Amino acid sequence: MDRRARIEAKLRETLDATYVLVVDESEHHAGHAGAREGGGHFRAVVVSQRFDGKRPVERQRIVYAALAEEMGRDIHALSMQTLTPVQWEEQRPESGGW
User: How far apart are CA 85 and CA 46, in angstroms?
Assistant: First the structure.
C-alpha cells in the first residue's frame, strides 16, 4: 500500500469517515525543503459525522490528531476540506455542488 492509500485508510478508519479522497501533490513541490526530507504534500477531502457541530479549525485538529504519526514523517503539508455528511450531500457533484 502506498503512502497516499495508507493516509486515506487511516482517515477512513480513525474518523469513521463516509468518504475520503487523498491526492498526492508531491510532484508539484519537487525541490521544496519538506519534499527533500521525504515528506509529501497532500490534499484531502474528508466526510465524517465527527465534524458535526465543530468549527473548521476544530475539524482540522481532529484530522491532524488522526494523522499524528504521519505528520512530519510522511506528510510535510496537508490541505484539507472537512465536511459533515449533510454538507457533503449538499455539495457533492451529483447534487450540483461540485
Answer: 10
